[in-house]
Amino acid sequence: MTKPPSFDQERKLHAQGCHLIAGIDEVGRGTIAGPVAAAAIILPKRADIPWLSLVRDSKQLSPRRREHLFELMQETGLAIGVGVVSQTEIDDKGIVPATRMAMRMAIEQLPLLPDFLLIDAVKLPDVSIPQKSIIHGDCLCLSIACASIVAKVRRDRLMIELDALHPGYGLARHKGYATREHMLSLQRLGPCSIHRQSFAPVRRLVEKS
After folding, report:
1. Along the 209 residues of the chain, how does pLDDT read in single tens digits?
2. Among 109, 115, 194, 96, which residue's Cα sits nearest to residue 147?
C-alpha cells in the first residue's frame, strides 16, 4: 500500500490555535452521468486513532475498504457534511461552479462550524472561513483523504440507487464514468435523464439523434 497521507497540515494549524479543521474533497467531477458530490470532515485533534493509518485517497482503496473506513469515520469523526449537486445543475452552471457548490453545501451540513478548511485543489473564494487549497491533497493530507472516502462512498451508494431507476447502463458498476461498457450502452439506449448533456460524449449522441 502507498504511503499514507499525513496529519502535518492539521498539526500546524492546531499549533496556531485552530481547533476545528475541516478537510474537503469531491468525487464524480469527471463522470458523464449522475451528480457531483463533496464531503467535509472534521477529525479529532489526536492522530493516534488506529484506523487512520489505513486511510488513502479513495481511488487507491477497494470498495470494501472504503465502506469499512466510512463506518469508522461515522463513529470517530467530530463532524461530517455531504453536498450533492445534480447533473441538471452541472449542465446549467458548469462542472467547476457545481463542484464549488457541492463543497459549500458539505460545509453547511457540518454540525460544527470549522475555523479552517483544507481543500483538495479547489478554492472557495465566496466562503469566508480561512482556507488552504492543496494540490493532490487527497494523497497528502489526512483530513482531505478522509473526505474523499466519505464523498466516494456516499456517491457510489447513490449511483447504485440510480441504477435501479435507470437499468441497462451499468451505473452500479462504473458509477457514471465513461467506461467501454457505459459508452456501448449509451450508444444502444441513448442518454437518460441523469446523463450530463453538456459533456462531450453525451452531447455528441444528442446532436446525432
Report:
1. 578 899 999 999 999 999 999 999 999 999 999 999 999 999 998 767 888 888 998 989 999 999 999 999 999 999 999 999 999 999 999 999 999 999 999 999 999 999 999 999 999 999 999 999 999 999 999 999 999 999 999 999 999 999 999 999 999 999 999 999 999 999 999 999 999 999 999 999 888 76
2. 109
User: In the structure grid, which three cell numbers stand for residue 131, read together?
Assistant: 482556507
Alpha carbon distance 169, 185 (integer Å) = 5
Q: What span, in angstroms and rounded, lies between the C-alpha atoms of 154 and 113?
A: 22
Homologous superfamily of the 8-167 domain (CATH): Ribonuclease H-like superfamily/Ribonuclease H (3.30.420.10)
Give the rounded distance of the alpha carbon of 36 from its chain centre.
Answer: 7
Secondary structure of residue 31 in the 3-state scheme: coil
pTM: 0.95
C-alpha cell at 178: 465513461
CB 146 within 8 A of CB 21: no
